[in-house]
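Need a sequence for this fold. Nothing fancy.
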């Protein structure tokens, strides 16, 4: 975590980044007999299209809001203007196919421990498996040093070979990938420990998706740094030393900033109607699938 309150690092003893293989057996066990829960919106069309949460140009009315400079004047409700004297815009919804996008943070901060690296990959692959069980072809976006857009059949191999070595923050790495597309559901797996303002980045992640789930995967050292002789806070991506000695005062300040950072993301998620899920890397995927991640599972 940096000194200004954005979380990007963890205690380091000059160790190498940690990576662990994905437990494919756990992924299979956790996904067996289950399918992905899609947003509860009306289905339309031959392919069962679903409505997107973003503003679009379809003929189905979604809502009204106040006019903002730059809005298309063709969407102004002139009857409402006549009644109220205020500019009001008709907001309509896109019609999109129930595609599933899974965005996985593959920056270096995801590899502060082997457990964290493995768990994040397992969660992403698990979501891809659930999507396939429901008849949807997932698309996996890997935001790391070498950004990749991986179609459904290749997701397992791509995640199994993935190394969390991105040296840029998640938002920057994501910007080098193809743009996020219209989809029925987007699931983003990250530690969300970056300096990008939560409100703006959450809006970007939720854009053009009928539903959005933000899954925060954290290691125990992210939440509660242990310190110890020689330990220091470093920026996981740049290697910059943020705190040279982890004194009790430094650790207390870290925890305070960390909690404020997470609260900021929780608020940002609510504002874009995204579901916020926090998971601990020390728990197995099977346990998580039955617990906190069950919000992604279609009820029997």
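Here you go.
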């Amino acid at each position: 975590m940096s000194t200004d309150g954005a979380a990007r690092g963890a205690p380091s003893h000059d160790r190498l980044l940690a990576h662990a293989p994905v437990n494919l057996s756990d992924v299979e066990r956790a996904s067996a007999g289950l399918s992905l829960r899609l947003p509860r919106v009306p289905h339309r069309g031959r392919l069962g299209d679903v409505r997107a949460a973003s503003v679009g140009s379809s003929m189905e009315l979604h809502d009204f809001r106040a006019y903002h400079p730059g809005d298309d004047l063709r969407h102004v409700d002139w009857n409402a203007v006549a009644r109220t004297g205020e500019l009001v815009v008709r907001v309509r919804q896109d019609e999109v196919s129930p595609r599933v996008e899974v965005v996985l943070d593959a920056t270096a901060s995801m590899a502060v421990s082997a457990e964290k690296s493995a768990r994040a990959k397992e969660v992403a692959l698990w979501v891809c498996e659930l999507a396939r069980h429901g008849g949807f072809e997932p698309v996996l976006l890997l935001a790391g040093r070498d950004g990749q857009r991986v179609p459904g059949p290749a997701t397992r191999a791509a995640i199994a070979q993935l190394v969390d070595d991105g040296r840029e923050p998640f938002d920057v790495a994501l910007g080098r990938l193809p743009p996020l597309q219209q989809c029925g559901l987007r699931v983003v797996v990250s530690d969300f420990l970056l300096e990008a303002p939560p409100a703006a980045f959450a809006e970007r992640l939720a854009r053009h998706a009928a539903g959005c789930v933000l899954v925060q995967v954290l290691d125990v050292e992210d939440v509660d740094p242990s310190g110890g002789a020689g330990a220091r806070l470093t920026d996981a991506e740049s290697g910059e030393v943020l705190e040279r000695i982890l004194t009790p005062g430094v650790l207390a300040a870290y925890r305070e900033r960390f909690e404020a950072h997470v609260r900021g993301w929780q608020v940002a998620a609510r504002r874009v109607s995204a579901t916020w899920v926090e998971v601990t890397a020390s728990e197995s995927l099977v346990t998580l699938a039955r617990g906190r991640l069950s919000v992604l599972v279609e009820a029997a």
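For context: Residues 1-16, 41-62, 93-97 have pLDDT under 50 and may be disordered.
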